[in-house]
Write a structure and sequence with these properties.
It is extended, with a radius of gyration of 20 Å. The termini are far apart. It is built from 5 helices and 5 strands. The strands form 2 sheets. The chain has a 3-stranded mixed beta sheet, covered by helices on one side. Helix content is 44%, strand content 14%. It has 118 residues and is α+β, with helices and mostly antiparallel strands.
């Protein structure tokens, strides 16, 4: 009986070593390609409501949020989470540049931290 348990444990250890993580894709495009894409081609991947909003232009509030996110990601150390950026903008379209950021979204009472993951 103990011999079967040992064989089972070695098989489980071999499976853990083989385990690969699922690669993130958005509508068939992987994350590296999304990050290197120009905004015009990226907009074509979004749904019609987001496409319409981005074609009409981004407002100053949304642009300042993106610049603050860039600054917080640049200032953080490698392999660490960036500082939280607080905002009242609940309707912002998430672009690939925002991935890995931490945003504090105001719900009317407190800022809830949201980490943007792929």
């Amino acid at each position: 009986l103990s011999r079967f348990i040992m064989e089972d444990n070695t098989a489980a250890a071999a499976l853990k070593k083989k385990r690969t993580f699922r690669k993130f894709t958005f509508r068939g495009v992987d994350l590296d390609a999304l990050l290197s894409m120009k905004m015009d081609t990226l907009v074509e991947l979004y749904t019609c409501r987001m496409r319409r909003r981005l074609h009409r232009g981004t407002k100053r509030k949304h642009n300042t949020l993106i610049t603050k996110l860039r600054k917080s990601k640049k200032e953080c150390l490698p392999n660490e989470k960036p500082d939280c950026v607080k905002t009242h903008l609940r309707n912002t379209v998430i672009i690939p540049e925002m991935i890995g950021s931490v945003i504090g979204v105001y719900n009317g009472k407190v800022f809830n931290q949201v980490e943007i993951k792929p």
